[in-house]
Amino acid sequence: MGENDLTVVHSSPLFIHGLRSCVSEESTIRITDTHFSWSEFVPLRDFAAPWLLLDAFLDDHVPVLVKVRALVKMGPRPLIAGPLTLKQAALLKAEGAAAVFVEDLTMPELAMAVSKTMASQDEEPRRAEGSKVGPCNLSDRELQVLELYSRRRALQAAALGPALGLSPETIRVHLRNARRKLRQAGWPSTSRAELSRALTELGCSITDEQWQRIGRW
Fold first, then answer.
1. 6: closest CA among 38, 27, 31?
2. What is the DSSP annotation of 181-195?
3. Domain containing 16 — which CATH number?
4. pTM for the complete prediction?
5. DSSP per-residue letters across 78-120
6. Which of 18, 106, 129, 214 is buried most deeply by CB count within 10 Å?
7. Is residue 139 included in any domain, yes or no?
8. Quick one: DSSP state of residue 165?
């Protein structure tokens, strides 16, 4: 793999086709492989390019923050594309994202922005030391369970367990631990609404309104 090789994980074939059409033979970017979902990418992660452009709005059971953490551990340098808030973008960068493109860019503009980022960063991205969702220290699994429990899917523990390959009791343990961490950080966490509000204020969750605004559901 060359240092300017790029893997793209995006749900839209039109997006991928448009980006490919903007990457000429003279471009510093070389798109080596593409995937339409996170679950499709993960089994092939060992073959990923040094850089990975990720759709922030992949509709699956894995929050984008957890994906960024995973990519930092895997090795590819994450580039995130999608209309996120500045708070969400700042948190993703703190967790190791090399860049977050939140602007409504045309495809040529996005290709140029990606190229500039790849050309300007020589070192591997590092997650800010001790950074785990601000002051709350939420683990990947706790964040995933909170997201699925408090957002639009609003799944109960009995349904969350099979979806994540865990027992309902394990789900309840993650919920208890996450609620305790949020309370210790000063966030009310009794109801689903309070959990949802805490995730939003921390910047670690994409809200239902954001999903609706881009027409993904």
1. 31
2. HHHHTT---SSHHHH
3. 3.40.50.2300
4. 0.89
5. EEEES---HHHHHHHHHTT-SEEE-S---HHHHHHHHHHHHHH
6. 18
7. yes
8. T
* Interval 121-153: pLDDT, tens: 755 555 544 445 556 789 999 999 999 898 766
Considering the domain architecture, whether residues 111 and 31 belong to the same structural domain is answered as: yes
Could you give the 3-state DSSP secondary structure of residue 32?
strand
**Per residue in 172-184, pLDDT tens?**
999 999 999 999 9
Question: CA 90, 64, 171 angle in degrees (round to 5)?
Answer: 120
Q: Distances from the Cα of 157 to the Cαs of 148, 182, 212, in angstroms?
A: 10, 19, 25
CA-CA distances (angstroms) from residue 160 to 33, 93, 153, 164, 208? 32, 29, 10, 6, 19
Residue 14 and residue 66 in one domain: yes
- Angle between the N-to-C axes of helices 192-202 and 140-150, in degrees from 0 to 180, rounded to the nearest 10: 120
